[in-house]
Amino acid sequence: MIEVKNIHKTFGQNHVLKGISTLFEAGKTNLIIGQSGSGKTVFLKSLLGLHTPDEGEILYSDRRYSEMDSTQRRNLRKEMGMVFQGSALFDSMTVLENVMFPLKMFSKMSESEMKDRANFVINRVNLSNANDRLPSEISGGMQKRVAIARAIVNNPKYLFCDEPNSGLDPKTAIVIDNLIHEITAEYNITTVINTHDMNSVMEIGEKIVFLKNGHKEWEGTNKEIFKTDNAAVTDFVYSSELFKKVRQMYIEERD
Amino acid sequence: MQYLKNFGKYFLMLREVFSKPTKWNIMKNLILKEIDDLIYGSLGIIIFISFFIGGVVAIQTALNIDSPLIPKYLVGFTTRQSVILEFSPTFCSIIMAGKVGSYITSSIGTMRVTEQIDALEVMGVNSLNYLVFPKIIALLLYPFVIAISMYLGILGGWLAAVMGEYTTSAEFVKGLQIDFKPFHIFYAFAKTMAFAFILATIPSFYGYYMKGGALEVGKAATTSFVWTSVVIIIVNYLLTQMLLG
Question: Contact B76/B157 with Cβ under 8 angstroms?
């Protein structure tokens, strides 16, 4: 569980996060949505500890980030997994080496135990026959699977994903969304996903936080977001023709 | 003001590089890889340049001796002094700033752009120790490269002088031996060690703290080359004044 209490973040004159408070529960797929420049990435990086908020608190299972020393913060990061927008795989390492990397760095497992564990998560993300290939030799969807495998190999308590299906075709994007959703429930992970993909919102958004200009404009579930009257949210959600038509059908059905 | 800020940031980076070490069995492999990339991979260009520059120094010296009162062994003496005191330690380091420095900046910069450094940090890895420390250790072998450069520079000078019939082999060798001060070797290797540290850390600094995309990686590599060269030249002046002045 991650509890965010009134966090602010400023870069120079630019007040990016303006007092955001929310709660991300374990075992649920939490989404942060909003337009580009709304503060989503800064918010996610603040949750990861890559940015320190100027004001406010972030609590990881009741542990205050601001009260941790650098060693405790580094140890906390070992409980986190992150799937970056561009996958951020180490391009000099093979798929297997990438997945084994967190284990090599922090676990006391033997080489064969590490390989077994890595192969287990590689199978879990439905990736096969790619162990010896370099990231540059596999497709974007496969890279995302490797990134997910690397993020969960150390049994993280917290999983963060930055635009996990950007650059993927709609079918692969749904597969990746479902995979993250399944893993979240299966391992009771607190998952926070930064996205602006409405398909993800519809499919896996168990909790959605909508940001606008650094504020939390709205929060709720994927069922509630299609019924809300909040103008900023509806403007965002129904910005595509497809969703406009879906809404029209919903209204016609209701009436 | 920005220069002052970068100066402070550079020393803060160094503090982080030497803190929270990476596991030895991982670090060992990283060091071996860096030795291969930075040291072994640079031998070709250093060998080539040293050999021919040594030859050019010998020919230039011989051509500029007009007076019959100046002994011919001066060709060997000048080649030795030029190569050992300045060419090998300083100018090879400037060349290395272009070759190794650009490689370090662009490889670390690309890792920054593609969020690989963020990935290390998120995992709880001290990314500065992981990326920069192996380069510093690998470049501890840089004096061996410079020793090879010295040897080949003098060999090139000897071959050019003798084969071009500017002087005899005996005269050249006499010039190499005359008024030899072992302290000059110490001075040359002391400089080399300082330059090795600069070569490992300044390009890393520009790669690690770069912002932007692919275009900025190129810009950072250029800036890194300029500043590494400037610092090498300034440190060269200071060490020369301190050790020989």
Answer: yes
